[in-house]
């Protein structure tokens, strides 16, 4: 059983966890949402400073709640890519320092690989190959998971990520930040058929459309035009109906692409990861489509959909059990393709 202390500071959650293989021994998450709400989005410098103020006490709390001492920790891990450079540096520097002080192996973990491993925390018997649909504020991708560290990107967004589209539409509707939870709540009381919105498709040079790639910038613009037309006509905006129609469009588009991709590649399991994995509309459509096509769809627990250190620790434990570790000279990357994960371990 490989035990890892992991740190996640890629954006606006400061998180520390201790994970033994796929078992979470402790998981501490401090969200910065209340701090960034006044700005309407994440301010990188503010996020970095908040990580500095919070991280040490979270490390101590994680150790205390796990009832472990440093002699029981096999390795120290931190997210190193992708993310906000300043925020990543806080976590990476802390992890390297702990690794040197306690003479433990150090592992830099790819954030998206962490989201893939979030499903393992609730599905300890899940093994590759399977399809992963990663949907978050910064990423929307269909990943063929072949083994630990071995991934193939089959589809991705060409512009806005799904979570980014939720935030932008929420801002347009004056719903505040973050947009996903509030739009999901409003969609429960709105009419998803009230407005016909475009799902967004990517044309191929030879004709037709890419079966797995997504586009959400056009959908965002379509919502803007609906709002402008309704405001021009006067009266109160049917915000719940707009939210429901928008969410329905995104959920259907993602479901169609994920199901088609899984069937085309002969994969009978789809694992969902990222903050948008918590969306009720996406869960409903994917589960219904999976039953229709005799596929298995797996969602991580809601607490592991958004950024957390437990998923980072789970990925790190698997790598460490295979003899992988990162050099202490490893830096951070604001962007790094998931297909380059093994480069983080000098391989």
Q: Which strand-content bin applies to the residues?
A: 15-25%
Mean pLDDT: 95
Largest sheet: 5 strands, mixed
Q: What's the helix-strand series?
A: EEEHHEHEHEEEHHHHEHEH
| Total beta strand runs | 10
How many whole angstroms does the radius of gyration measure? 20 Å
List keywords for this structure.
347 residues; alpha/beta; 5-stranded mixed beta sheet; 10 strands
Can you tell me about this structure?
With 347 residues, the protein is an alpha/beta fold. The chain has ten helices and ten strands. The chain has a five-stranded mixed β-sheet, sandwiched between helices. The longest helix has 26 residues. The chain is globular and about 65 Å long. The chain starts with a strand and ends in a 26-residue tail after the last helix. The relative contact order is 0.19. The mean pLDDT is 95.
